[in-house]
## 1
Amino acid sequence: VAAGSYVISWKRSLVKESVPVVSTTTILPHVIVESIPLHVQADLPPFGRVRESLPVMYHLQNKTGFVQDLEIAVEPSDAFMFSGLKQMRLRILPDTKQEMLYNFYPLMAGFQQLPSLNITMQRFPTFTNQLLRRFIPTHIFVKPQGRHGDDTSIEAA
């Protein structure tokens, strides 16, 4: 897609009126626009807590005019247990959404890597998991197990 051009016009301020305005035109480079056949969104809380359920809802939307056959796998993480299907095949109709709910169960405190969602699309083999990771979070902060008082404050020991 052509991005257009950028025009810079200028004139010296302390010169006679007869000096013309100077214009410089620069053509902007073309931009490659990728069509993404599947939009993925994850809804999850801002943080988790050790040994408490952490619900994660994945929303998959087919952005094409074709039925999409997906193979979905959730890769385990050392920091989480989870409930939900580990592997599945799914068919999404054109311009529709599908939701998948997982309950992650954090085992360790700190900034932890979430179990990764891997999607393979038969019609679009170039749709990679690296592209998918741009849309969904890969890590979450997990607070240690303890009392639930005011989550916004930290008390000194």
Note: The chain has one helix and twelve strands.
## 2
Amino acid sequence: MFFLGLLLSLFHQTTEQRVNKTQTVTPVILVPGICGSQVDGWYKKTVTPHVYCTKDSKTWTTLWLCLECMLPAVINCWVDTFKLNTTDIHNLKNTNGVQTKVNDFGYTNGIGYLDKNRFVVQFEKMILGLETRLGMKRGINIRGAPYDYRYSPNTKVGKQYMIRLKFLVEETYELNDNTPVMIVAHSMGNPYMVNFLASMDQKWKDKYIKGYVSFAGVFGGASKAIRSIMSGETEGLPEIIVDPLTMREFERTSPSVYWLFPTPGVMKDLPLVFANGRNYTASQYRQLLEDTKVHKGVELYDYIQDVPLFLPDLGVDVYCVHGINQTTPLQFRYKEGSFPDKYPTTITGNGDGTVNLPSLQLCKQFKRLKHYQAVSGFLATHLEILQRDDVIEFLSELLAGKLEEGQQLDI
């Protein structure tokens, strides 16, 4: 009985130590960027673009990222299902007969990988690092906040996401013995968090938010968004398989893509598009969209004009890390007669491979900035930065309360 009591005592102490260790760690909510959330759909349509397209899914099925849906011919069916109905700009919604939902809100299955077959990694390595280094647990102090990235924050869907996120923050706080939460965002998730944090009153933020970490924040837009609307973007998938013009049909219906056009404040008077004998700057998007004859393009662009990508004072401590010295699309030159249906010659500049450097560097202007660092070399591109061991170690030390203000990554 003595040894049994001793073993039980030791087990109790060890368990208590594990719990205490977990309790001293700041819980985290991970917010993905554009194309970073798995989206499921259930559809029953009366009309399809081709006879081989399925009208009735009969159950929930993967829409993003569905790699097999990107195959030639099949992609036309996918676009018809996933594009938005833009009949009423102020009431954007799915194509008639289609329902959608994000996968695994509050947990991590919908953000660890971009696809359910686990081919394209996103946050998974970072999550594993937090589990290994700090003993953190998925669904308890590692939470995921995926969202339907087709919509901007001012849409009905975007506003509903903000409400869900508020409840998720409060729930995570309570699950972890009233410990304030660290929000970690990637890519377009950062402008989303700018709008979320700006909408919360200071008393709420002081209670529930420990801080906000930005990875690869697209605070001033990205030139690639222009190319998406003009000529289509394959979202990193090989163009030999995925037709940019087919993707363009979907991308032109998403307000979030127009939202990410580079801002005049970042690009100044730099010409971004050269086509048909004229140049277009960041102050001439309406004319560009009119000349391109994008259906509802000007209306969608105007719709997101009052939604900021960046605000300097969010009322929370901010930590920023992004890549640098990666070849990044900046300007697009179309040959005579090729605009906009042929891919342009791309003139590149500095950035993280996706977001231009001036946009990334807006992070420096946060009033409560506690840490800023630009990293280069291996795994410094827009998505790969989430896989870097030094970045994961940085986040681990921050959540464990071991990071000194201004401390740099060891690279």
Note: The mean pLDDT is 92.
